[in-house]
Amino acid sequence: MYESFDDYKGYMEENKDKFPSHVFEFATDVYRHHLDSPHSLHDSWMTSVIVRENRNPERPFDPEPTIEIELLGQKHDRSINLSYSGIERYTIEGLKNPYNWGDTYQGDISCHEVRLSAEGFLIHEILFVSESKITIICKDFQCSERLHT
To answer: Taken in order 101, 125, 2, 13, is the CA torsion positive or negative?
Structure first.
């Protein structure tokens, strides 16, 4: 993780042409990182993680894994959905939140960032207050929101 958001944005600008435009927009959108924005992943809570091995019944030996992460937004007024495809590798490290495990196991999201792997894949790393971590290396991902009304 970068020391500052300015350093991170500098990295993203230097590598802008290597990212799909929608991923670059998500990764550099200050409102996805801002402490008080309802669109921010900061202070959101993880609701679910779904790992699917999508298989073609005629060729079941070539699965196409996908991952979906649903977050309860920091203002508790929306779900933020992250959908990953072209999965190359992922890790999920869960630690009980030492500050408030009865409220949320992993804790709030502390920060997240998107980078490129040496092979040119997208890396999305999400760190939680509890020091839990989700790292997904993939070819593409999308972010969407659903308001709770």
So the answer is: negative
